Amino acid sequence: MKAVRLGVGFIDVARVLILAYVLVFIVYPISYLLYMIVTPESFGEFLALLGRDIFQTALWNTIYVTVWTLVFALAIGVPFAYLLYRYKIPLKSAVLSAVFMPTMVPPFVGALALIYLFGRFGTINLLLLDAGLIERPINFIYGLHGVILVQVLSFFPWIAINVYNNLLKLDRSLEEAAETLGARPLRRFLTVTLPSLTPGLVTGVFLVTSFSLTDYATPIVLGRYDLLAPQAFINILQAIDESRVRMGTYIVVFLLAAVIGLFFATKRYISLKEYASLRLPTPLEEISPPPAKKALLTLFIYSMLALALLPHIYIFLIAFSKTWSFTPFPTELALDNMVKIFSTPTPIINTFLYGAIAVAICFLVGSTAAYIISRSSHPLNEVIDSGLSIMFVVPGIVVGTSYLFAFSRPLLGVALGSLWLIMPIMLATRRITYTVRYSYATFLSIRRNMEEAAYVLGEKPLKTFVKIVMPNALHGIVAGTLFSLIMVFNELTASLFIYKPGWETMTIQMFTEITMGRLNLAAAYAVFLFIVSFAVSLVLFPLSTRRENR
Amino acid sequence: MVRVRLEDIWMSFGDQEVLRGIDLESGDGEFLTLLGPSGCGKTTLLRIIAGLYRPVRGRVFFDDEDVTHAPPWERNIGFVFQDYALWPHMKVFDNVAYGLRIRGVPREEIRRRVLEALELVGLKGLEDRYPHQLSGGQQQRVALARAIVINPSLLLLDEPLSNLDAKIRVNVRTEIRRLQKRLGITTIYVTHDQEEALVISDRIAVLNRGVVEQVDTPWRLYYEPRTAFVADFVGQVNMYRVESMSEEDGYMYVETEIGRLAVKPRALEGTENVHIVFRPEMVEIGRGRPARGVNVLEGVVDTVQFLGNLQRIDVAVGGGRVRVETHNPLRHGVFEAGERVYLSIDPELIVILGR
Would you say B21 and B10 are in contact if contact means Cβ atoms under 8 Å apart? Predict the structure, then answer.
């Protein structure tokens, strides 16, 4: 039951402001992008593009990569989640926290590490050459299989986390009912457990598919340009001539259509309201298996975790090595790389500056929007809710392209795209869903009559919001905002489209360093970024799991 | 204090009609209870009085002032919520002081009045606790203190006792009534518990499916219910459909499934759907046939429940069943299922209802 409308108050004013934000920074740029292909001429071009060889090749390569990534991510992620949920595994909480890590770091960072590990003169090849087992380096990663490898390691945690979260909501008595009726474990899993995991599975599949389809950085780092996302990227950003830019744009729109189509196909199972508020799960009841079985389970969990974390460990090695070439491992450790990135601090300063502004926007817009959605009923709430939620689904390449085009021309006399302010605004808008969802869940947990008790004592809505609601909601809003912040720090795929010289963030600089062959500097940035993200998450996780204990 | 007057209040949520034309008036300083099953609209009505909902149609008056469109913060009311709604981030003192601060009461006076209010509800010395450090009963009393400390012109309570243990509930309801009498404050109280309503109220309004069935004193509500719903909802009742009736010797005779009964005559609103009702404790039960008297029924004991202070016996009579309660069970000893018994009912105590 929503409350009666209490006249024009602060909620109505706030609704208009938030709506304006959604229209200007979400609806407008995406509509602008779509508008670019709806003229008869451009639509003809678009159709012609679909038939061209270069598109066909890229399309099939993309499908190949996405399908295999998905298959392997499922093959690892589902058992990973289930075993972790069901059995007593040493240091379970730590494993759960660790598996979150790859989801926060852009996947191309993994690619960078794997070059050192599996590259032509990476650790493995050199070890094999030294041992005399091979005569020429084996190409482990340059190619589509390398892209698949990197993406599987980066993305399988998304499957694991979603399935695990779903398992936590599973009513154990459903499984027990099957057991009492004589179902053995495998049968029980297939007939009862797995079907009830559909929402988590579908959500995981959707996310991994969408990430894999639109990831252009990993293939570029691994030297493959003949996939859809990298094609779009190089055509738009290299901007050789206008027809190339248009072609890139068409590919972006095609990718957007694919993701949105997939979203609607799976929407029945995915609740936008839920999946952006992934919380660090807390372990529940568990079975202690016999020693041999336990050893096997633990081995599986830990080796998968090690695989997922391997790139990150390697990044540290790279960042802290003095020089590292043609040896399996670094010969000398030093801080040179770290010192170097701090001697040209612009990307670091930018990252923190944009992060601070983006956090302020997320906090103000996100928490207010969540409050409006949770506490009032109005047809326009749906626009706000959908607009802010959809940003979780819209791929970075789409956000980047649409902002690039939409804000390059003056809007109310200002070409926002030429002001550095567009960077934090874009970052906040792209990552705001986390703040909105966390705040929304927090507001729902605060009973409405807390506010009503203030009303009847004579307090008006705005003051009630400030004095009664905020003190109780702050931990949830801050948790959501910090989650947004981590994702802002690690954003690359959209920023890369709209930055101008001098606006580089750490992720952009990393990408630049990689393309210029300075992998060690890229690694140094990655390490610093990781440390910052980790520090933020240390604050975030206790807040996000805090229960209403008073 | 104010009188509350409701005129033709209608309320709906979506296409569900919750209140359908409520007219109701409270006396000045009266304790009026809204009683009804869950979903009858009693809480909705209370929230409309508070200004937390605005009715779809109808008007709310405080004395002669139309407050239908006034927001809650302009009504000067005390409201006690079902789950208390204490603010977890504030100490007891600050919870209670909140309304006074909004009213710009001087610091010293706030302190004095808050402590007074806490003393009044028996919580002296707990002002520095947080709500989560209190028991349910204590939290409930903080909520009450918060509501009365502002000297509201109207006190509204929404099932304030429903989250308490049975024993504490009895204590607190006595306290609420005592406090209300002492402060002389007009009070509207929502409950679904008929015993609570009978004990605490000056008058009770019984609500059913969004309409007021009857407004009366507890006594009259119990002994002279005006509708079958009221008879059935307030206390236990034996109720039978009347198949035919006739009048002779100053009595009305009705034909029912348990036989022919004499009933005190009463003007009926209509002759459709006529029922008679009487309470289980009004039935005399015995093992021998009474020498004389009207309304003597013969039956066979079906089930017996022993509740300590009373014995509840269901007796099969004719094509129906009569529930009998005898207080002081020792008087008759234990009845056995299958035993033949005689029942008699004073015609004065049988109420006939029709519409």
Answer: yes
